[in-house]
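Lecture 7 notes. Example A: sequence first, then its structure tokens.
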Amino acid sequence: MSDDKFISADQAADLISDNATIGLIGGGGGLVEATSLHAAVERRFLDSGHPRGLTCIHALGIGDRDSRGMNRFAHKDMTRRVIGGHWVWSPRMQEMARHNEIEAYVLPGGVMMQLMREVAAGRPGLITHVGLGTFVDPRLDGGRMNSAATDKLVEVMTIDGKDYLRYLPIPVDVALLRGSVADEDGNISLEEEPANLDIYAMAAAAHNSGGKVIFQVKRKVVRGSLPAREVRIPSALVDAVVIDSGQRQGYELVYDAAVSGQKVNPNVPRDMPAFSARMVIARRARTELHDGAVVNYGFGIPDQVAKIVAAEHAEGRYYQTIEHGTYGGTLLDGDLFGYALNPSSMIDGPSQFDFYSGGGLDIAFLGFGEIDAHGNVNVSKLAGNTVGPGGFIDIAQNAAKVVFCGTFDTGGAKLAVGDGTLSVITPGRIGKFKQDVDQITFSGSQALRQKQDILYVTERAVFKLTAAGICLIEIAPGIDLQENILDKMAFTPLIADDLKIMDSSFFTETL
């Protein structure tokens, strides 16, 4: 083998043809994002108008809510279509979707990772129950997020009397990927990366589609110096490698060996979250944990549950997982959601979603945007914006118990919490409990068919999904049932005969 695989970022960008389908990897905050390759493609387009008419596919969110990641591809005529699992990190792409300047599609993040594996294997798409009853079901929206999106990406199949979804294969022309180290032959190690995600699946999908696999890495090492078990992508799959000596583990993270699992840092910060209404929600949700549970935490208030667990030094009581493929450790939050300090294991993302899809999760703590009278939850399209669920559908539809965590309303709400009680000073302008959600990201009826245990936890009330509908089972101390809850909902829930008052200790600054 020769070194002719090693080229510049601009040379790599020149390999992308007009109308190509590009496979991209990332997880927000710069996680395994091929930042230099993205920048080179954008630079070429702004200079020459090419490549144009691109289709971009990605399982999780990529970007910084400003200029990087998917924002690099958010130019008129550059991108024609996006099939993305999560869009929040790219407001520019959201804007293009809102104005029908692109064809906007959303598929579940785990489904997209597993679909790339099916493409690599030459199989006829992904056949799964994941997504039934949600907006990706073709009997609803089929994953289409605007009127410009008209193609069929998914269809219903019946096997042995049961309905399944078949996600149609999407061949990949170019994969823009990131690793840590390449040897002279182009074997790729991910040794310094905070997660594996679906890097191998995407590389194999592009290679076996007859496309090109381009890697960005931090450094090159001599032939034979990478131990075989550290090579995650063999050189047979790799067409080109670009060296970026300034590559970071994340936008704001240069390098931390405890994040990549190469070393253990015994001095991990374990600060308890600040006392607030959000903390009340997390405290109440945390009571649903039981020893030995396999757990997933979603973004936002749910990751405060993880912070409480860490502050209590209780991580060892549970099997904590991240959909990116990571197990154990102390989970990070905010822009570093998806990273973990001192993880115990890192597997590939498609394999993680296999485990989830088959019912491996005992409990999932997830956020919500809207809840309706049927127990449906919307997190994927809010106020007309394409948000996307990331791994939400794959997780929520398959965990034995799901605890949805969120504030009761939003938009200027002012609450007084302390001394064991809660009072509403000013209600939020936007109610979250609607007669019907704008888009079904989680199906209450499907959950009932699957016999899942579903709770909806807010700072002033806790609800449970039952066959007869949403049932109010707890209210906060100090809250007026009619004025603060029922009058602020667009539907009337069932009320438990043994309606309980939430534990007053949740509403005190110190437990």
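Example B, a different protein, same format:
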Amino acid sequence: MSFTLQASRWSDVSLVVGSRALSACGDFLAATTLALVLQESGHGGVAVSGLMLAAGLPLVLLAPISGRLADMADSRTILAVTAFAQALVCAVLAFTTHPALIIALVALLACGLAFTQPVLSALLPEMVRREDLAKASGISQTAGQVGVLIGPALAGILVGQTGARVPLLIDAGTYLALVVAAFAVRTRRRRSPAAGVPAPLVPWRLRDDRTLAVMVGVLAAIVLGISAINVFDVFFIRETLGASTTLYGFVAASWTVGMLAGSVVCGRVPPHRITPMAMLAVTSGSCVPLVGAAFVGDAVWVVPLWIAGGFFNGAINVFVMVFVAGRAPSAARGRAFAAVNAPIQGAGMIGLAVAGPLVGQFDLRVLVASTGVAGLLAALAAWPIVRREPPSPPAVRGSHLVRDSVGA
């Protein structure tokens, strides 16, 4: 659907990928810094939970609006204006100490992310040929994970050496860099007027594509479990398995290492092989290590299991980009990515919310195994539905977006 380039624009991909890595690093730099600020100022888990909620809830609530805007407005305008506003908000954050105001400003930052995320997701398929999309997606996911790895570590160093203000101002600088990148990228998504009248939006709804809707449900179940694991594993690894803090650090990092490997390897998969059944296979693969971890006797064995789970998680991230881009018309991809991301983000927040009260109420091995079993059951329930569906929906005609070759 609308993969019409004669050659992929790798220079544009490099700009977007670099921006993604810088943005992820800056976001996690700020998030870790603010969590440390709240903790060091004597505020408890409620304040930190509020911070996490403020960072995630706007992405869910604003999805219907941000998706439509991504398909209606010039992508360059959205990215530049939003990133500039986020830079201002982050600069104000650097001089803010009241916890309620910090949480409110973090919510504003997340509102910006809610608008830029579907734009960037919809823009990447416009930059490359269909056969190069998995590679481009893999590169993008890898860059984001590198940023995620660097951000928290850098925050810990900077907060200890300089205080909270410097890392937050650095984050503001990353948003200004995104403004520059928005103007440097030649590829644009923008409305093409007909006789001076803006064309109507191409009709698209998630529920009209049953296979995609089912896959979103499966992915939401997987993400809910993985989010819960983020709460369970510190107790499971440290208390049930008796690991040292050093070993726990290796376990915590191993999932991200696996995601990096999965993004790189699965970026080489030909797009025609990224089918609904392949999606079910990788989602199931991310659940099996969670079940296996419940039966180990030493935390050392969790490391390879988490690497395997992260590998399939990285594959999911790559496959989702190709899968959604192949099933939604070009002019509707902003709404498509927003509609797909919202329930998945929401499931992740639910997983974090419900996991805490469960610790101490149930055996941790049971809790860890249950997260994997729930994901496997969701994939199993989806299998008969997906198996009967065609690999892709009928093409939707009438795209009203044009793609610039020189960014004029």
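Note on Example B: The CA atoms of residues 95 and 342 lie 31 Å apart. The two ends are 24 Å apart (CA to CA).
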